[in-house]
Write a structure and sequence with these properties.
Number of domains: 2
Order of helices and strands: HHHHHHHHHEHHEEHEEHHEE
Number of strands: 7
Length: 438
């Protein structure tokens, strides 16, 4: 008994698809397989009871076409495109049977209602009205042709036969409309529930990804703190040992001066690490709807002194994507670090121009910040660019600690995004920030 049940489940999965496949995909896979089998039966039975040469090719072709539909949808996963061709071919096959074989009888009616139900099930709700209208027009057109040309219908003697089926025509169209309304109601509820579930799963996935990034960064930060603090502390310890051995006041004064410099260096480093730790604390804050232009203009106000002194031209282009759901503090910090970097590492040979743009790229919300500054040779510096205490263009006179890009990268990745860069020496730099997927 258990073996039979297991075989049934395996066969069912083989036909409908694996568990992760959407319900409408499973229904379509099963329907395509069933239609392929049923059309074989129809072909065998019909060809045994009639000798019309016009039936041979269509009835032999139908199982092949439905088998191709099943293969494309089930094994090649071309569900959406295959479903459209399946519906069109099914309606054409129904019309052919209706004209050539038996015209209106309960079996043909049921076949048409099955095609209608299946089409409404696998199509999105927004396409239901169009598909229902096509089905109703299809029936009206068939009946109009049957009334005008009764000799086309295999089972019609004359136009009076058409009148006998008027009630059946009206009933069939009524059934079409009723089925369409019922399925649209349930399909809309199903799609709404699925969208809610999908959104919830995406949010959980983003949270898990953010937590994973944070744990990775915390591990990296622990190693970095251990490495960065060990050197100055070891240096100060060595200086203290030397101080005890010094005999003259001048020698001791030199040691004290070195100790003082080391203490300030250590203090600055602790301050930098504290700023980084605040970012990890910020992750607990809720995301909120944010207008990109408003945040960017706030940052430009903070940088207004540098913008005026450098006479920089800054262009904001948020036409493609205006609002995001993000941590406002993080977004301000990202804008501040990247725009201030563009101002800091400007070229002395030209007026600074910075363009900030938002756009969608393959479902990802992107922000790009492009400048015409000094640029970098990424073949030499790409691996070091986002690391802590790494500075470039020291001969430019820019005051930099080398933690801004490190913090920015951490912030972007902790929110589940990614930051990349393109740069060319004496041409400029463009940072691409992927905020999240829509």
């Amino acid at each position: 008994m258990n073996e039979d049940s297991s075989l049934t489940r395996r066969f069912s999965r083989f036909i409908s698809g694996p568990e992760e496949v959407l319900l409408e995909n499973k229904i379509f896979n099963t329907a395509a397989f069933t239609f392929a089998v049923v059309t074989v039966v129809i072909a065998v039975v019909t060809l045994n009871h009639t000798h019309q040469g016009t039936l041979y090719l269509p009835l032999a072709l139908a199982p092949v076409v439905f088998s191709i539909f099943f293969y494309n949808a089930r094994f090649r996963e071309h569900f959406r495109s295959t479903s459209y061709f399946f519906i069109i071919f099914s309606l054409a096959f129904f019309d052919y049977l209706w004209f050539i074989v038996v015209a209106f009888n309960p079996a043909v009616d049921l076949l048409f209602l099955l095609i209608l139900t299946l089409g409404l099930t696998i199509l999105p709700v927004k396409q239901h009205l169009l598909f229902t209208c096509i089905c109703v027009l299809n029936i009206l057109l068939l009946n109009w042709l049957a009334h005008l040309f009764p000799h086309w219908i295999y089972s019609y003697d004359d136009s009076t036969t058409f009148i006998q089926y008027l009630k059946a025509h009206v009933l069939l169209i009524s059934c079409i409309i009723l089925i369409a309304l019922v399925i649209a109601y349930f399909k809309r509820a199903y799609e709404k529930e699925r969208m809610g579930s999908s959104l919830q799963n995406r949010q959980l996935s983003n949270i898990n990804q953010a937590l994973q990034h944070r744990n990775e960064h915390l591990e990296g930060l622990a190693r970095m703190v251990s490495h960065n603090l060990r050197s100055p502390i070891a240096g100060m310890k060595m200086l203290l040992n030397l101080y005890e051995r010094m005999e003259t006041p001048d020698q001791k004064e030199d040691i004290v001066q070195n100790l003082n410099e080391g203490a300030f260096q250590l203090f600055d480093m602790v301050e930098d690490l504290s700023a980084i730790m605040l970012d990890y604390k910020e992750l607990n804050k809720e995301k909120e709807p944010i207008e990109l232009r408003e945040v960017a203009e706030t940052v430009l106000t903070q940088l207004s002194g540098q913008i005026r002194s450098t006479k920089a031209e800054i262009e904001l282009d948020f036409r493609e994507y205006q609002d995001v759901i993000y941590s406002k503090t993080y977004l301000e910090s990202i804008f501040l670090n990247l725009i201030s970097n563009a101002l800091k590492y400007r070229s002395p040979d030209r007026k600074p121009k910075i363009k900030v743009r938002s756009y969608l790229d393959k479902g990802k919300v992107m922000i790009s910040i492009c400048d015409n500054g000094l640029g970098l040779d990424l073949s030499q510096h790409r691996e070091q660019l986002f690391k802590m205490y790494k500075t470039f263009h020291r001969d430019s006179g820019a005051d930099s600690k080398g933690i801004g890009l490190f913090i920015t990268k951490n912030q972007v990745e902790m929110m589940g995004g990614k930051i990349t860069v393109e740069s060319h020496p004496d041409v400029g730099t463009t940072f691409y920030v992927e905020l999240y997927r829509v």
